[in-house]
Each structure stands twice: as structure tokens, then as C-alpha cells.
Amino acid sequence: MKIILTNEVSGLGAAGDVVEVKDGYARNYLVPRGFAIRWTKGGEKDVEQIRRARKIREIATIEQANEVKSQLEGLRVGLKVRAGEQGRLFGSVTPADIAEAIKASGGPDVDKRRIEVGSPIKSLGAHQVTVRLYADVTATVDVDVAAG
Questions:
Q1: Residue 26 contacts residue 39 (beta carbons within 8 Å)
Q2: Cα–Cα distance between 115 and 118 in angstroms, integer?
Q3: What region holds the Ribosomal protein L9 domain (predicted)?
Q4: CB of 112 closer than 8 Å to CB of 96
Q5: Do 115 and 131 touch, CB atoms closer than 8 A?
Q6: What pLDDT score does 25 carry?
Q7: Element (H or E) spanning 4, and its range?
Q8: What gap in Å lies between CA 130 and CA 114, rounded to an integer?
Q9: Which of 34-43, 57-66, 98-107, 109-118 has the lowest average pLDDT?
Q10: pLDDT tens digits, 12-70
Q11: CA-to-CA distance for 21 and 38, rounded, in angstroms?
Q12: Would you give the end-to-end CA distance of the chain in angstroms?
């Protein structure tokens, strides 16, 4: 099945790309979650609009990515969450929470879809997350999760 990606999907492509995938993968996973739309002849207009929006928010050059990487790696991000007595969180810390905390700490604006949390953050303390900035450029950000 031919689809148009509306978000970046790792291993498949970036927003605005037209890709061919198995029918079940598109029908059961990509389309219902909003990662893609079905390709149609009229959908070519949508492709250009998606690509323009992606170009506005994406990091254009590797130099720009390295600059953002140095800003992120020199940053200490603090995050206040609700927690129980043993230090277990009520829920977990999401990439959207981390993106907000980076911005509140004086860091650059980071897209939540570029933040990779290895295992779910469900406890207080120091944690590390990875931010994919460019094809070969990733930054490691220290996140301090505290009860608040």
C-alpha cells in the first residue's frame, strides 16, 4: 500500500515522504495513529504542505545540529513530578514533559518526537535521554526528576 507519512517514523522515512508498506502495517498501525495518510492523486498537494512544514521546524545543517547539541549537553534539566513515598512516580515522564522542561531550563526548542527515552522513567533521580538532532548527531541530556 502506498502512503504519505505525516510524521517521522524511524526506519521508514520522514514527514512528507511517499513510501510503500505492507497493507496491514499501514491499515492497523500507521494510519490509525496519525503517522500516515493513504496516498491518492489529490494527496500530492498534501505532500508539499507537509514538506514545507517539516522544513520550517527541522534543523537544516550539521553545523546547526552541532550547535544545538552543545547547548543541550551543557544543560541540566530539572523536572518536578508527583511521586509516592518510595520514590515511585504516579505514571511516567513523557518526551513531551522533557521537551517542556528543556525549554523552561533555557534550552533550545526541541521537538518531542526527537526525544528518545530508553526505558520509561518511573522513579526519582538522575536519568539520561537521547535527542536525535540530525542524521548522525545525537545529544545526551541529563534529566533530574524530583518530587514536586
A1: no
A2: 10
A3: 13-40
A4: yes
A5: yes
A6: 94
A7: strand 2-5
A8: 8
A9: 57-66
A10: 887 788 899 999 999 999 999 988 888 888 777 777 777 776 666 566 577 777 788 88
A11: 11
A12: 48
Q: Of 136, 9, 147, give the one whose Cα is nearest residue 62.
A: 136
Buried b (16+ CB within 10 A) or exposed e, 53-80: ebeeebbeeeeebeebbeebeebebebe
d(CA 40, CA 120): 38
CB 33 within 8 A of CB 3: no
Spatial CB neighbours of 115, under 8 Å, sequence gap ≥ 6: 95, 98, 99, 129, 130, 131
Q: What are the DSSP E strand ranges found in 8-137?
A: 18-20, 36-38, 76-81, 88-93, 115-116, 121-123, 125-132
Side-chain half-sphere of 19: how many Cα atoms within 13 Å? Answer: 23
Cβ contact 33:102 at 8 Å: no
Q: Retrieve residue 131's grid coordinates.
A: 535527542
Amino acid at 103: K
- Name the CA dihedral angle for 131, 134, 135, 140, rounded to a multiple of 10 degrees: -30
Q: In whole angstroms, what is the distance from residue 134 CA to residue 63 CA? A: 10
CA distance 124 to 84: 10
